[in-house]
Design a protein that fits this description.
- This protein has a six-stranded parallel β-sheet. A three-stranded parallel β-sheet has the order 3-2-4, with helices on both faces.
- Helices cover 42% and strands 16% of the residues.
- The protein is α/β, with parallel strands linked by helices.
- Bound molecules: NADP nicotinamide-adenine-dinucleotide phosphate.
- NADP nicotinamide-adenine-dinucleotide phosphate (NAP) binds next to α10.
């Protein structure tokens, strides 16, 4: 039997519709339109594509979306000035500085300058600390999207007691993912380059989340039969005809023969990331005004 394919694209469409309904409710009840400001520095082609998608999907959901496009020559001081202006702009609820930043700009300093209440990427140390201590903050979008797909696939209560392995410990995916899985009552192992016998660790996982940025690192025989596999990786691989294609961090066809469910690349985790960014912007808008989170998204 082959695994169920977890359709992140379809789930993201329905989440964006829920966000759109919540935005409409906020406007009708309180005359509030949540505002998202995206800052793009330089000409990185992949970043330009991501930012265009964020802008289009934010508008479609009814958010006020602004993109500030700054030249690659922008200094760190100038960028910090832009962030300070957005922090103090009452119409802006969410600020996202697109990474990577050009050489010469310290992304850590820039992310630290964002008002944590507007940090819709959830990368600020205050939000990371709130998540690590089980308190309410803004949660990084990609792991939040992975958790939603897992809950959708397994049911929230069915996650209790499961063994979850997170492969990768980055601040944007691996670490927050592990925190979320622990909050969902899984027993969590985080594996990284220093871990011994990573395939054996992965084989223990009822839930395996892979975020390493290594094309098809995880083979079929690393996967526990019947497990759920979430592949966060997005890697561009050259094809024989001179083109390229996207592959994940998991050897998809091999894993499909062993797992009970898994996410494809593309069409799995990727679409959930932007949908969760829109969700975070609405949550930030409500919290900043002490408004109740609209019912459409309250249980997301
Ligand atoms: P990252 O910052 O480079 O972190 C990679 C992590 O993987 C590190 O913790 C590293 O371990 C670990 N790792 C690398 N090779 C390993 C190996 N052979 N065995 C065990 N651990 C290994 O990457 P990231 O930002 O988390 O992104 C990971 C992947 O997810 C990338 O493909 C990225 O494009 C993708 N991504 C997708 C989305 C989305 O929206 N779908 C969002 C973000 C990222 P050490 O800590 O020991 O170095």
């Amino acid at each position: 039997m082959t695994a169920t394919v977890i359709n992140g694209k379809a789930y993201a469409v329905s989440l964006r519709q829920q966000v759109g309904a919540a935005v409409a409710q906020l406007r009708a009840d309180w005359d509030v339109t949540p505002g998202l400001a995206v800052v793009l520095v330089g000409e990185d082609p992949a970043s330009q594509v991501y930012v265009r998608s964020k802008e289009a999907q934010a508008r479609e959901a009814g958010l006020r979306s602004t993109t500030l496009r700054l030249p690659a020559s922008t200094s760190q001081k100038e960028l910090l000035g832009v962030v300070a202006d957005l922090n103090s702009d009452p119409a802006v609820d969410g600020i996202l500085v697109q990474l990577p930043l050009p050489p010469g700009i310290d992304s850590g300093s820039v992310l630290a300058a964002i008002d944590p209440a507007k940090d819709v990427d959830g990368f600020h140390a205050i939000n990371a600390g709130l998540l690590a201590t089980g308190q309410k903050g803004l949660v990084p979008c990609t792991p939040l999207g992975c958790l939603m797909l897992l809950r959708h696939c397994l049911g929230p209560r069915a996650m209790t007691g499961l063994s979850a392995v997170v492969l990768g410990r980055s601040n944007i995916v691996g670490r927050p993912m592990a925190q979320l899985l622990m909050q969902a009552d899984c027993t969590v192992t985080i594996a990284h380059k220093g871990s011994r016998d990573v395939p054996a660790l992965c084989r223990q996982a009822d839930i395996l989340v892979v975020a390493v940025g290594r094309p098809e690192l995880v083979r079929g025989d690393w996967v526990k039969p019947g497990s759920v596999v979430i592949d966060v990786g997005i890697n561009r691989m050259a094809t024989a005809d001179g083109g390229s294609r996207l592959v994940g961090d998991v050897a998809y066809e091999e894993a499909r023969q062993v797992a009970s469910a898994l996410t494809p690349v593309p069409g799995g985790v990727g679409p959930m990331t932007i949908a969760c960014l829109l969700l975070n912007t609405v949550i930030a808008a409500c919290r900043r005004r002490s408004l109740a989170i609209p019912s459409y998204i309250a249980d997301c």
